[in-house]
Design goal:
With 162 residues, this protein is mostly beta strands. The chain has one domain: Immunoglobulin-like (Sandwich), CATH 2.60.40. It contains one helix and eight strands. The chain is elongated, with a radius of gyration of 25 Å. The chain starts with a helix and ends in a 21-residue tail after the last strand. 20% of the residues are buried.
């Protein structure tokens, strides 16, 4: 009985530590909200700016009974790294700072300093938007193929000794 109690307590402490570390606050400078006319910037895990987004859609006045569902954005890779896959979240806020719309974006194979235009599937803006931000959720770097290695020469067999 004593061993199971100790094991249960150890597991409880382990899981509690995992949940507490998962609830750490993000750096607000990394996920800065900007006015609609400005470019939003997404950062990588090191805090380096990697993506810059601008809005193509100008009318973002939604309502609960008539939400805006189609928003076009242009996202540019501002880093020196080429990516095999990029995805993230676009979030919109009203004048009070309340989130009123959120959509996703993704792109396959994004070179350094390359841009792509995309929509935001799943987005439903239910307010008059005043600020927005983007957050990169997946940045998979493109790994160049390695050249074929030349096979090592096989040693010649040694003749048997008499």
């Amino acid at each position: 009985m004593r061993l199971t109690t100790q094991l249960g307590a150890a597991l409880f402490i382990l899981f509690t530590a995992c949940f507490v570390s998962a609830q750490q606050e993000t750096n607000s400078a990394d996920e800065k909200r900007v006015p609609l006319g400005e470019a939003a910037v997404a950062h990588d895990g090191d805090g380096t700016a990697v993506l810059q987004a601008t809005l193509r859609t100008t009318s973002l006045n939604g309502a609960p009974d008539d939400p805006v569902t189609n928003v076009r954005i242009v996202i540019r890779n501002t880093s020196a790294t080429s990516y095999a896959f990029v995805s993230g979240v676009v979030t919109f806020y009203d004048a009070a700072g309340i989130r009123c719309g959120e959509g996703i974006f993704k792109a396959d194979v994004l070179a350094a300093d390359e841009s792509f235009e995309t929509d935001t599937p799943g987005l439903r803006i239910r307010c008059q938007v005043s600020t927005w931000r983007i957050v990169a959720t997946h940045l998979l770097p493109r790994i160049p193929p390695t050249p074929f290695l030349t096979p090592l020469p096989t040693p010649s067999p040694t003749p048997p000794r008499p």
